[in-house]
Amino acid sequence: MAQGVVRATQAWLQSSWHVQVPFAWLEACVAWLQEEAGGAGRLSQQQINQQALDQWLLTDLRDLDYPVLPEGLAVAQKTELSGTFCVQVDSLLDISQPAYGQLQKWKGTECANDEVSAVTQTTQRPWEARPTRMLLLQVTDGVQSLEAMEYQPIPALSASLRPGAKLQLQGQMVCRLGMLLLGPSNIKVLGGEVEDLVDRNNQGRVLCRTLGLPEEQQQQQEGEGAPPAPQQGNQEVEDLELDDAELLASLEAQEEVGRVQVGSVRDSGYRTLSETSSQFSRSSSVRSLVSAASSRSGLTQNSRRGPVQEQEDSDLFDAIPSEHEIEEDFPDEDFDDLPLD
Q1: pLDDT tens for residues 69-80?
Q2: What gap in Å lies between CA 183 and CA 173, rounded to an integer?
Q3: Is 156 in contact with 188 (CB distance < 8 Å)?
Q4: CA distance 37 to 43
C-alpha cells in the first residue's frame, strides 16, 4: 500500500508540476509525513501530494543529485532547448545597475550624488531607449550549474527572489556557453527557498563578492571582537586631556615670567647682567617643568615655546653692551696735543 501511495505522488508531481525527484527520496518523504500525522491512514492522497511538493520546494536540489537538464549543456557552444525543466535559483544580481550603488542602498548609506551621471532619466530624449532591468541568475538542477540572463523583461521575476527558489523553465530557449537566454514566456516561479542559501547568498554577500570586498558577516564578526580597543583609546584620550591641562598651566606661568624678564632687561641696561641671569635661571626651571609635561603628552619642546625662547635670547643679547657703547665710555684722545714732558 505504501509503495502505491509513493508512486501516485510521483506521478502527480510529474504530470502537474513537471517535478522529477528520486523515488527513494520521495518514499522517505511520504513515510515521514505519515509519521508526523500520527499514522499511515491519517492523510489523504491529496494532502500527501501537496505536502510532498512543499518539502521539495524547501529542499536543496544538490542533495537530491537528480539530473534534469540535458547532459553537457553547461559546456556546449550553442544549444536550443525545448520542453519543461524545474531548476533552483542559487543567487541573482541586477547587472543593469552599478554594483557599488546597489551595495550602498542595501546598507542604507546611499548618497544622492552617487546617482548623478552624464546621462540621467531627465536628460534623455523621448526617442532614446530607457534603461531596463536585467537580472543574472545562477541556476542548477542539482547536477549542472548554469547562468540565466533576463535578456527581455520578465514580470514574474523579482530582484527580491529568495535564494533556493524553484523555477519552471518552459518553451523554446537558447543556451550559449552555459548561459541561458530567457524571456517572459520561459519562466514560471514555483516559490520556495533554501535556508542555507538564503544566508550564504543574500544580496549583500553577492554584491561584496562581485566587488571583491570582504563579506558583511565577516566584517560584523571582526567588529564584535574589537570593542576593547575603543575603551583603551578612550582611556588614552582622557590621560592626554589631563596632561594638556597641566601643560597649559605651565605655559601660562612661563609667559608671565617671560614678560617680567623682558621688561627688566630693557629698563636696566648693561650693568644689570646679574639680575638678568637670575631671571633667566627661573625661566629655565619653568621650561624644565613644561618640557616634562610636553614629553608626557607627546609634544616637543620646540613646538610649544619656540617663539618665547627666541624672544628671551634676543633680549639677553640686547642687554650685553656693544662695542660702540664701550668706545663712547672711553673716547679717543688726541695724543699729539700732549706735551712731550
Answers
A1: 999 998 999 999
A2: 8
A3: yes
A4: 7
Nearest to 305 by CA among 245, 263, 267, 257: 257
Minimal CA–CA distance to 257: which of 230, 232, 281? 281
Q: State the Cα–Cα distance between residues 305 and 287, nearest whole angstrom.
A: 8
Is residue 125 very low, low, confident or very high in pLDDT (cuts 50, 70, 90)?
confident
How many residues are there in the chain? 341
| Among 105, 229, 86, residue whose Cα is nearest residue 165 | 86
**The residue type at 20:** Q
Q: Which helix (H) or strand (E) holds 179?
A: strand 179-182
134 contact partners, CB below 8 Å, separation of at least 6: 94, 95, 96, 149, 150, 151
Burial class (CB in 10 A: 0-12, 13-18, 19+), 87: buried
pLDDT (tens digit, 9 = 90+) per residue, 277-327? Answer: 445 455 555 455 545 545 554 444 444 445 445 555 555 555 555 554 544
